[in-house]
Amino acid sequence: MSLWVVRLLFLVLCVGGGVAISQVRPELVAQWYLGGIIGFGFGGLLIAIDEMLKGFSLRAFSAATFGLFLGSLIAWMIDRSGLFIYVEDIPIRWVIRLGLFLGFSYIGMVLAMRSNKEDFALIIPFVRFTSQNKPDVLFVVDTSVIIDGRIVELFERRFLEGIVIVPKFVLRELQQIADSNDPVKRTRGRRGLDILNRMRRLPNTDVKIHDADFPEETGVDAKLVRLARNLQAKLLTNDFNLSKVAELQSVSCLNVTELGQLMKPVILPGEMLNLRIVREGKEPGQGVGYLGDGTMVVVNGGKNYIGKQVQVCVSTLLQTGAGVIIFANLPDSRPAETN
Q1: In the chain, what's the furthest Cα-to-Cα distance?
Q2: Hey, which of 36, 162, 191, 212 would disulfide with 137, CB 3.0 to 4.6 Å?
Q3: Is domain 138-262 annotated with CATH 3.40.50.1010?
Q4: Are the C-beta atoms of residues 205 and 220 closer than 8 Å to each other?
């Protein structure tokens, strides 16, 4: 049923109600049309208010009600403080009190409607108001994963969606790195700050700076794990040891480096690869090349083809803590066409 059909039916009921009410008063029995006009005006006013409130959600109404209550409470406390007892003129005192309540009520409503769910953590620490249908996913990030920068692409392409929580102690650590006298550290720190600014500009990602700190915890890693546990958030990191500590404390952790390893294409013995030999290997006669994802390929007999593009056959794969090393052989002694 169309909304305007419902409004029309409501308007008819208001007119009928106005006519019925007019018949209760003897002096209005003969002027029943006045009751109909009053009912029509009342219904039209409500429909106009309904049209003006188009797009005003239940969450906005709840926030406005909370802000109205909070603003009225503050105004009542100021009024009860006896601040205006020296105003002897009662009408002037009444106007001051009216302005006080109207002003604080308006400010409270506006601030509440502009806020989001995470801002309520300032009033009730570590408590989030979540939707029962689709709760927001929180990600607490550490310094290493910010400097790494790959999380921008993960959020930009919506492989990850949610609210990114940057603790203030992580932001301080990042700033200290950016202010370091070491040029390498300074470059890494500035890159991390640039990554955060890029993430703040993503349309589908909210980046929040969290004020929580834990003075009793001495290390940044311990603070990160505790904050993630308190917020029931996922921890995003590149630190292998931090991910293991979080796992021991039952905190969900996503290691971007491990994710990158999982996303590498599966290479099996016997496959042919085309790559450039760039340097010598550790063993005599070996050459070393790299795939596009950075995987190292050790080519037996590839020393003589350094600087050339060759086609090799995969023989074995060696899994190490840093990733996979591929060992390959040259199918013949002739190099492929040089770029």
Answers
A1: 116
A2: 162
A3: yes
A4: no
pLDDT in tens, 252-288: 888 887 777 666 677 888 888 888 999 988 888 889 9
Helix 220-231 × helix 168-178 angle, to 10°? 150
CB–CB of 11/44 below 8 Å? yes
Residue corresponding to tokens 């909070």 = 70
Say if CB 35 and CB 19 are below 8 A apart: yes
Q: Mean pLDDT, 10 residues at a time, over the chain (339 residues)?
A: 75 84 70 80 83 69 81 86 74 80 83 63 47 68 89 86 90 90 90 90 87 82 89 89 88 82 75 89 89 84 88 86 81 51
Q: How far apart are CA 227 and CA 243, in angstroms?
A: 14
Q: What are phi and psi of 287, to 5 degrees?
A: -125, 155
Answer whether 136's CB lies under 8 Å from 165's CB: no
Please give the structure tokens belonging to residue 246.
């979080």
Fold of 272-329: OB fold (Dihydrolipoamide Acetyltransferase, E2P) (2.40.50)
User: Which contacts (CB < 8 Å, 24+ apart) does range 273-276 have?
Assistant: 273/297, 273/311, 273/312, 273/313, 273/314, 273/326, 273/328, 274/309, 274/310, 274/311, 274/336, 275/309, 275/310, 275/312, 276/307, 276/308, 276/309, 276/310, 276/339
Check: CB of residue 164 under 8 Å from CB of residue 205.
yes
